[in-house]
Every structure is written in structure tokens, then in C-alpha cells.
């Protein structure tokens, strides 16, 4: 199989698309940080940063939960450390509901003691 070379124009279009996506991503992150600064107390933000170091996905879930809950009027800012922990527990409980437990049973040989 031979590779088809891309033209300079195509390369520029790809670069401009990538730059636009990167700019959009940066704008989204900046907006999210501004909302979190407005909605979450300093202690709550510290906890979110610590969670992010261990489980980035979990921290993002909690951040999005907080933003949506405040915007929908379900939660009043500032969200403190205790509320962040409560949300963590709630999300962990929801995650655990869908998981099943696996039990491993070892085969026994005739010479094993029961």
C-alpha cells in the first residue's frame, strides 16, 4: 500500500482544525474552573484536587455533578468539603450498584485436607 501525500493546503487545514479544537478545549476548561471557583469553597476545591491526583475520572464526575446541581438549583454554593465528600459517597454508591461480585472457588484435589 502506498501512502498518498497530503497537499500543503490540506496540512494547513488540519493544523487550523487542531488549533481550533485546542482553543475550544482551553476555553471549556477555563469556564469550568471559573464555575468551580464560584461554586466550591477553597476546602472543597482542595479535596477535588487531591481526588484528581488519585482518580481523575472521579474528580471530573464530582465537578460536573456540582456544576449541574448548582445550575439546576438543587445545591446552593459554596459547596464545602463535607458536601464534596457526600457527593463522592453518593457517586461511589451508584457505581457499586451495577457491579457484581466474583467469587473464585478453588478445585480440591483428593489429597487436600478439608
From TrEMBL:
Taxonomy, superkingdom: Eukaryota
Pfam families: dsDNA_bind
Gene Ontology molecular-function annotations: DNA binding
GO cellular component: cytosol; nucleus
Region (Disordered): 1-26
Chain intervals with Low complexity compositional bias: 7-26
Family: Belongs to the PDCD5 family.
Protein name: Programmed cell death protein 5
Protein source organism: Strigomonas culicis
